[in-house]
C-alpha cells in the first residue's frame, strides 16, 4: 500500500511519462521521489527494468539494499496510486498457493510476474485469466525461455490488446520469441530482444544507454542511442521527446521540431512534448503555431505553470492582454514559483486593458 508522505524510488522508466510529469504527479499525490533506493519506503518496478533485475530463473535481484519494511510495487500499481489508471477491482478465485500448484511456478516466480504486471492479483487473489497466463509462462520457462524474455513478450502483447495465454509462441534459433500465425513465424511488435551486430539489445537497453550518454554530456552518443530506441520501439512517445531535447541542445532546431512532432503523433496527450514544441516554435518565430502548442499542453494539463506563463507572455507581446490575464490568474491560484511574477504581470495586463478602454 502506498500512502501520502512516503519516499518513492522508481527502478527503470515508466512508459509514457517524462521526468517532469512523473515529479508533478507524484507531488500532487503527496509522494516524494528519491534517487536513493535505500531511503525509499516504496520501490516501483518500472516494466523496462525486467531485463536488469530479473534472473532467467525468475528471481528478483535488485542489486541494492532496501530500507526495512520497504514495499515493492508494480508500475501499474504506482500509476493507479497517482490516479493515472484505474486499479484492478475484481478479486480472483485463486490464492498464490493454488496458482503455484496448478501451474508449476515457484512462489518467487509468481511474485515476479505480478510485480511486472503480467499477472494482476487483487488483495492476493488471482483470476482464472491469471491462471491461464501463469500456465503459459510456466510452459515457456520449461522450454528454456528466461523470465526477462517472458515478461517482455507478455507486456508487448498487452500493448496489442492481448495476453500471453492467447497466442502461440515459438523460440527462433537466435533466441527471440516469435508468434506462430497460421503455421508461420511472425515478429511480435513490441519491446523484444532483437539481434543487432551479434548482440542482443532491446529498446529499453538502448533508451537507458541514451539517458546515460545524455546525463554524461555525450550528446552525439545520446542521439544515436535514442534513434536506435525509436526504431526498436515504434510506440513509446518519450523516446522521440528525449531525442528532440538532445537535438535542441545540439542546436538543430528543425530536426528537434520533427522529433517533438513524432512524440505528439505517438501520444497526443504528452503535455511536455507540446510544451517543448511550443518553446521551439517560438524560437523559430512561429508564434501562431507556438501559441496553439501551448494551448494543447494546457488543455492536457491545466495546472502546467510553465506553459501558462509562456503562453501569457506571448499573448502580452502580441498585446492581447485580455487573453493573457486569465492564464496569469490561474498561475496566481497555484502553489507555483511563478505566482509572484504572475501577480505582477496580471497587474500590468489590467492597466493595459483599462488604458485601452479609456482610449476607446
Structure description:
The chain has 360 residues and is α/β, with parallel strands linked by helices. The chain folds into four domains: 7-81, Rossmann fold (3-Layer(aba) Sandwich), CATH 3.40.50; 96-196, no CATH class; 202-301, Serine Threonine Protein Phosphatase 5, Tetratricopeptide repeat, CATH 1.25.40; 302-360, no CATH class. The protein has 16 helices and nine strands. The chain has helices spanning 19-28, 50-53, 75-81, 96-103, 107-115, 128-142, 147-159, 203-215, 219-232, 238-249, 253-266, 271-283, 287-300, 305-317, 321-332, 339-359, and strands spanning 7-11, 32-33, 42-45, 71-74, 169-171, 177-181, 184-186, 194-196, 199-201. The strands form three sheets. Strands 2-1-3-4 form a four-stranded parallel β-sheet. Strand 1, helix 1 (19-28) and strand 2 (32-33) form a beta-alpha-beta unit. Helix 13 packs antiparallel against helix 14. The longest helix is centred in the C-terminal third of the chain and has 21 residues, at 339-359. The N and C termini lie far apart (61 Å).
Amino acid at each position: 500500500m502506498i500512502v501520502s508522505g512516503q519516499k518513492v524510488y522508481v527502478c527503470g522508466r515508466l512508459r509514457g511519462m517524462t521526468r517532469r510529469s512523473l515529479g508533478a504527479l507524484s507531488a500532487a499525490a503527496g509522494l516524494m521521489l528519491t534517487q536513493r533506493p535505500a531511503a525509499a519506503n516504496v520501490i516501483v518496478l518500472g516494466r523496462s527494468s525486467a531485463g536488469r533485475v530479473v534472473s532467467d530463473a525468475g528471481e528478483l535481484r535488485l542489486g541494492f539494499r532496501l530500507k526495512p519494511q520497504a514495499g515493492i510495487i508494480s508500475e501499474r500499481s504506482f500509476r493507479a496510486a497517482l490516479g493515472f489508471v484505474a486499479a484492478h477491482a475484481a478479486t480472483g478465485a485463486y490464492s498464490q498457493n493454488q496458482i503455484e500448484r496448478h501451474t508449476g511456478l515457484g512462489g518467487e516466480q509468481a511474485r515476479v510476474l505480478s510485480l511486472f504486471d503480467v499477472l494482476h492479483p487483487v488483495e492476493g487473489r488471482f483470476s482464472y485469466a491469471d491462471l491461464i497466463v501463469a500456465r503459459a509462462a510456466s510452459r515457456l520457462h520449461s522450454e528454456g525461455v528466461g523470465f526477462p524474455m517472458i515478461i517482455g513478450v507478455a507486456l508487448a502483447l498487452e500493448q496489442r490488446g492481448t495476453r500471453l495465454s492467447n497466442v502461440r509462441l515459438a523460440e527462433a534459433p537466435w533466441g527471440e520469441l516469435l508468434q506462430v500465425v497460421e503455421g508461420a513465424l511472425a515478429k511480435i511488435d513490441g519491446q523484444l530482444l532483437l539481434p543487432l551486430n551479434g548482440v542482443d539489445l532491446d529498446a529499453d537497453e538502448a533508451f537507458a544507454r541514451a539517458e546515460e550518454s545524455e546525463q554524461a554530456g555525450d550528446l552525439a552518443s545520446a542521439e544515436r542511442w535514442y534513434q536506435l530506441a525509436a526504431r526498436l520501439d515504434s510506440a513509446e512517445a518519450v523516446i522521440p521527446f528525449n531525442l528532440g531535447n538532445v537535438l535542441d541542445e545540439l542546436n538543430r532546431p528543425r530536426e528537434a521540431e520533427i522529433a517533438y512532432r513524432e512524440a505528439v503523433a505517438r501520444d497526443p496527450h504528452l503535455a511536455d512534448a507540446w510544451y517543448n514544441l511550443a518553446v521551439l516554435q517560438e524560437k523559430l518565430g512561429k508564434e501562431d503555431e507556438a501559441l496553439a502548442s501551448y494551448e494543447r499542453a494546457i488543455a492536457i494539463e491545466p495546472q502546467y505553470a510553465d506553459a501558462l506563463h509562456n503562453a501569457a507572455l506571448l499573448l502580452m507581446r502580441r498585446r492581447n492582454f485580455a487573453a493573457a490575464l486569465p492564464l496569469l490568474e490561474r498561475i496566481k491560484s497555484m502553489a507555483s514559483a511563478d505566482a509572484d511574477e504572475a501577480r505582477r504581470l496580471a497587474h500590468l495586463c489590467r492597466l493595459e486593458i483599462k488604458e485601452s478602454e479609456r482610449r476607446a
